[in-house]
Amino acid sequence: MFFASKKIVGIDIGSSSIKLAELSVTSGGAVLENFAVVPSPQQAITNGEITDSILVADSIRSAFKENGFKNKKACVGLSGTAVIIKKISIPRVEPKRLREQVQYEAAQYLPFDVSQVTLEHHVLSFTSSPENLDVLVVAAQNEYILNYISSVNQAGLKCGILDVNSLALANIFELNYGKTSEPVALFNFGSNITNFLVLFQGEVIFSRDIPVGGFHFTNEISKNMGITFDEAETLKISQSAEQKEVPEETRTFMNIALDYVTEEIRNSIDFYTATAQGHLITKAYYTGGASLTVGLIQHLVDVLKLPFEMFNPAQNIRSGSKKITPLYLQQITPFCAIACGLGVRLVGDNK
Ligand SMILES: Nc1ncnc2c1ncn2[C@@H]1O[C@H](COP(=O)(O)OP(=O)(O)OP(=O)(O)O)[C@@H](O)[C@H]1O
Ligand SMILES: [Mg+2]
After folding, report:
1. Which of 123, 140, 282, 345 could form a disulfide with 182 if both were Cys (CB 3.0 to 4.6 A apart)?
2. pLDDT over threshold 50, residue 2
């Protein structure tokens, strides 16, 4: 009906790259109309925090113009350890008192002053006990959020919606795979951050942004081989692309990062399991640029004894332009999930 007017550009601001996705959702499914990925300005984003919004705005503006985006309404996603996502149980209250109650209960869990924080909540469809409501609370400090909004606004766009990257990932997962009857884990391996969430019966029951990613591999190579970060990045990528022989020791240094990253992932899974009330993870899906790291996924399978399958965000999304060929879609697959999840957000919201 009015789908066209609901279109929005999803913007995923990562520390390594910025992705823009424009989709339209029709009764026949989602259509990817346009997509762009550009390198992030150096040192302007760390662990999900924007430290230089002018540089980020410049990158968004040029990516938008050079790739022929037209729609200026944007949905931007927050991520990193500054965003807190927590499932809490609160006593059942009348709907009109819910917000107040959530504020009160959440204040006890938050490591910062609630007056400086934006808080959202979502009531889960199932509860751990009949007299309680299970609520997913999302909180972030206002100052941190403002940097995102101003980056988008300074780029000449209008920040229509703020979302959270891991929730956008859940959204796009469901659009492609439907609701899962067993708890499944989703991992988006980025540069600084790995978004980890657990989905069960169409709800996010756990989410944590783990501060590990592709950066750690490049950094180990750079530090130990005495080469620049960019040189180390080239060595790392050419190793995974098997383009050329890389020095033997590269592998040794990558293994140091591999152990570290795996340990952090394992700790987060253990933390989830300890609080999961029996909802054990049966399978994991992966995406993100760093999921291309040589040996990473196989190592996780071996260590965690969990099956890992590549998440294909394009399983249920068709191409809506000549630019988006099957080959292009394949190339952007590890990078596009979150931007696509942000891009379908408005439509999903109005269902
Ligand atoms: N072919 C490849 N082999 C190994 N690593 C790769 C490859 N291509 C990209 N990467 C790594 O993927 C990471 C970038 O992925 P992505 O764009 O998903 O991160 P980001 O969203 O910018 O980061 P974050 O969300 O952590 O801020 C970088 O660390 C990069 O080195
Ligand atoms: Mg990312």
Report:
1. 282
2. no
Instruction: Give the long-range contacts of residues 177-184, CB within 8 A, separation 24 or more.
Output: 177/315, 182/282, 182/283, 183/276, 183/279, 183/280, 183/281, 183/282, 184/281, 184/282, 184/283, 184/284, 184/285
CATH fold label, 83-138: Dna Ligase; domain 1 (3.30.1490)
Residue 271 Cα, ligand 2 centroid: separation in angstroms? Answer: 22
- Could you state, in order of their start, the residue ranges of all structural domains in the chain? 3-82+139-215+258-349, 83-138
Reading the block at residue 222, the tokens are: 């750079």
Adjacency order of strands within the sheet including 283-287: 203-210, 194-200, 184-189, 283-287, 308-310
Strand 73-78 relative to strand 158-164, pairing: parallel
CB 147 within 8 A of CB 53: yes
Average pLDDT score over the chain: 91
For residue 190, which amino acid is it? G
Most confident residue range from 98-102, 227-231, 345-349:
227-231
CATH code of the domain made up of 3-82+139-215+258-349: 3.30.420.40
Atom of ligand 1 nearest to the CA of 338: 21
- Residue 112 reports pLDDT greater than 70: yes
- Do domains 3-82+139-215+258-349 and 83-138 share one topology? The answer is no
List ligand 1's pocket residues with C-beta within 6 A. Answer: 14-17, 190-193, 213-215, 218, 233, 236-237, 240-241, 288-290, 292-293, 335
